[in-house]
């Protein structure tokens, strides 16, 4: 695919960039991704990841994007290559609390009875939702995009307006802070620990502690992901031994089966928080269109399909007005399908960051590389 054959250029290969690129490519646009980090090295790989529009603002658009995400992820539970499963679990609190308003989208959600709550807890709710194993899911998305004819280019981006494509989509996450620039985007650092699963099949989320410390775990087959942290404004990517020890201790207190769990690794990622998700089009001086799709906070997986669909529908509706876009004749009135079976390898290496900042992705390290006996 040469630049002259390009309809859409998506900047960023995290879950929002990949999903947007898939949606555009499957709708008939000749699409490329340009990214500093390949999918397996983006911050998306550090996500838990259970469906839920957390840390993403409020309003009707967020709710509808989340609804779309729930529908798509539920459908993908039947795709073996996607790494998406329906998992049951509960959220609990030591202080009175109500379920978030968006939980009414989940069929079968119910309040926990007192007998179902851990000792010392007074509120909780029980539900089933899609849980996504992110390394597998990102590999699935990459393979699906490439099967649709898309290509990924690893290269820095210094200017969105300088990108040579009729349609440019900015899915740069925390990178948007410098690249747009948009100072309302701030990183919310998350750290998790991976352990060998001792047989836990339900997820667990404790709302009793506030930021920066949280207690949660999500089962992913033989691996259990333990969390976590949410530290606003922190850019450092090395796992902190003190945080890892606190996560292990708190999760073991929540479930004694974790007291002697074997640590497999650690991950750190930066959630791209913004008071409201930015999803809007900007007309460039030369008539080309720049879409912004960033600021999803802790809900990139949840909102990505809804945001991608909104962009794709708008582009298809306005395609005759976009310079140089050439649509195949059978796609003008078609939105991307929900399901698409693929298989393919997960992503690997990383690139360099934009504007001189080190690449903002994920740091994924083995257990032996973090000294849990060290003090910070």
Please give a quick description of this structure.
This protein has 376 residues and is an alpha/beta fold. It has helices at 15-26, 60-76, 134-147, 176-179, 241-254, 300-318; strands at 8-11, 31-35, 84-93, 110-111, 123-132, 151-154, 167-170, 186-196, 203-206, 213-220, 223-229, 231-232, 263-273, 278-283, 289-294, 362-366. The strands form 2 sheets. Strands 3, 4, 5, 8, 9, 10, 11, 12, 13 and 16 form a 10-stranded mixed beta sheet that branches.
Provide an overview of this structure:
The protein has 376 residues and is an alpha/beta fold. Helices cover 21% and strands 26% of the residues. Strands 3, 4, 5, 8, 9, 10, 11, 12, 13 and 16 form a 10-stranded mixed β-sheet that branches. Strands 6-2-1-7-15-14 form a 6-stranded mixed β-sheet, covered by helices on one side. Strand 9 (203-206) and strand 10 form a beta hairpin. The model is unreliable at 329-360 (pLDDT under 50).
């Amino acid at each position: 695919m040469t630049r002259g054959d390009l309809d859409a250029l998506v900047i960023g290969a995290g879950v929002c960039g990949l999903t947007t690129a898939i949606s555009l490519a499957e709708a008939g646009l000749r699409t490329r991704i340009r990214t500093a980090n390949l999918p397996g090295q983006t911050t998306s790989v550090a996500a838990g990841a259970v469906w839920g529009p957390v840390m993403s603002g409020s309003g009707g658009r967020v709710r509808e994007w989340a609804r779309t995400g729930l529908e798509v992820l539920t459908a993908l539970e039947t795709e073996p290559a996607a790494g998406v499963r329906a998992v049951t679990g509960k959220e609990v609190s030591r202080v009175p609390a109500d379920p978030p308003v968006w939980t009414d989208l989940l069929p079968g959600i119910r309040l926990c009875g007192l007998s179902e709550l851990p000792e010392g807890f007074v509120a909780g709710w029980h539900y089933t939702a899609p849980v996504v194993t992110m390394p597998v899911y990102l590999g699935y998305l990459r393979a699906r995009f490439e099967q649709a004819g898309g290509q990924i280019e690893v290269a820095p981006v210094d200017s969105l307006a300088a990108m040579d494509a009729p349609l440019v989509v900015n899915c740069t996450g925390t990178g948007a802070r410098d690249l747009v620039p948009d100072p309302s985007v701030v990183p919310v650092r998350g750290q998790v620990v991976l352990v060998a699963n001792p047989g836990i099949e339900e997820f667990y989320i404790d709302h009793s502690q506030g930021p920066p410390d949280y207690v949660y775990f999500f089962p992913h087959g033989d691996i259990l992901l333990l969390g976590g942290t949410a530290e606003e404004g922190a850019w450092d990517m090395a796992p902190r031994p003190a945080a890892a020890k606190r996560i292990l201790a708190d999760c073991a207190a929540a479930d004694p089966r974790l007291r002697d769990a074997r640590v497999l690794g650690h991950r750190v990622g930066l959630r791209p928080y913004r008071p409201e998700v930015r999803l809007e089009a900007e007309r460039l001086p030369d008539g080309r269109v720049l879409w912004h799709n960033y600021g999803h906070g802790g809900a990139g997986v949840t909102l990505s399909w809804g945001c991608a669909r909104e962009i794709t529908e708008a582009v298809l509706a306005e395609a005759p007005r976009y310079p140089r876009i050439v649509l195949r004749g059978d796609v003008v009135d078609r939105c991307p399908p929900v399901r698409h079976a693929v298989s393919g390898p997960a992503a690997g290496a990383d690139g360099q960051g934009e504007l001189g900042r080190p690449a903002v992705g994920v740091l994924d390290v083995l257990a032996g590389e973090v000294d849990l006996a060290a003090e910070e």
